[in-house]
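Whether sequence alone determines local backbone shape is best considered at the level of individual chains. When preparing material for the folding task, we compiled for one chain both its residues and its backbone structure tokens. The sequence in question and its structure tokens are set out directly beneath this paragraph.
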Amino acid sequence: MSLTLLLDLDDTLLDNSMSEFLPAYLQAVSAHLTDLVEPSIVVQALLAGTQHMLRHQTPDCTLAENFYSYFYPAIKIAPEVIDPAIESFYAQVFPQLQSLTRPRPEAVRMVEEAFRRGYRVAIATSPLFPLTAIQQRLAWAGFSPDRHPFALVPSIDTFHFAKPNPAYLAEILAQLGWPDEPAIMVGNDPTDDLPAAQGLGLPCFWVRPPASTPPQENEKAIAAGSLDDFFPWLDSIPADMLQPDFNRPSAMMAILQATPAALSSLTRDFAAHHWSKHPKAGQWSLTEIICHLRDVDAEVNLPRLRKIIQEHNPFLPGMDTDPWAEERHYQQQDGRDALRRFTQTRITLLRLLEGLAPEGWARTARHAIFGPTTLRELVSFIVGHDRMHVRQAYETIRTINLSAN
């Protein structure tokens, strides 16, 4: 069986109580920056900046962009002055916090068994730290890049969402190219890990602390136990119980948010001269894929959703959008500008759906091709279209990067 495992880090793979770690972290970083900023100002800016970041999760800004838009003005120090000191903190001081943590031998056993089985394994800790801080904590837990090649390690600079937002897990899967196989979330936190997985329609294995009470809102695909219990549970259940349910509104909204966010991260280091390259004869370039998503959202998806929300059982004509690639000369357009415009249109579409009452998802329409339909079904088509083209973009980037190397 093929499988993608999404693994939480703190108190799942690594003993690391945030009630102890966070105060020590705040004290250490504020002391390190004391020559530049009063420690109390640093602590306040870090805490308030984190809350600002978590309240303003959007597809057009990374978590880092949201955090630093608050943090720099709060401490009244220019980035070019404070950033070198922050970098030296993570290189010189942050490693000392390892003493507050303990590795879990069962975590290493579990991860190595997953690799032995050929599973795709990604880290799914909330990306509230720079990559170096997450990589260091993975090392404290006993993992090394050579022996444990995780498919993805998220960070504040490359992600737009964080737990318990289901869009965070959707963003992980999108950055992995939307693998076809089932995915399972494994985590310890019933207020972060479980709601994120349930909101996206993923099965979740709760790494339950001893003597703890199961959450009240359990779903059938959730199991609980120690990390040593994971594979016996996995091997005992029917494969169909692992299939995700992306058709619930919370999952569809998460995927709609994740698409432009993941495309932004996937393309951030993609060379400009590669955007117009075709991976194979007859296949679209990255620019053509992004232009297609931009125009379909602006001229098909958004007008259709507005029509079904504003009118009673409207008629929706079919549209053949594939010829637009040649008719509109996508290949000669600016792919990065197309991605920016797609993102802004998608945010408009999301706001339209966010304002919808629950019964609004059942609003009806008559489609020229599909016949009688509902808003919920139409959104599911958009979600499927998103996943298909994110997978296409992922494979295009991977193929061109491999050929370039």
Notes: Strands lie at 4-7, 14-15, 102-103, 120-123, 183-187, 204-207, 223-225, 315-316, 364-367, 371-374. The radius of gyration is 22 Å.
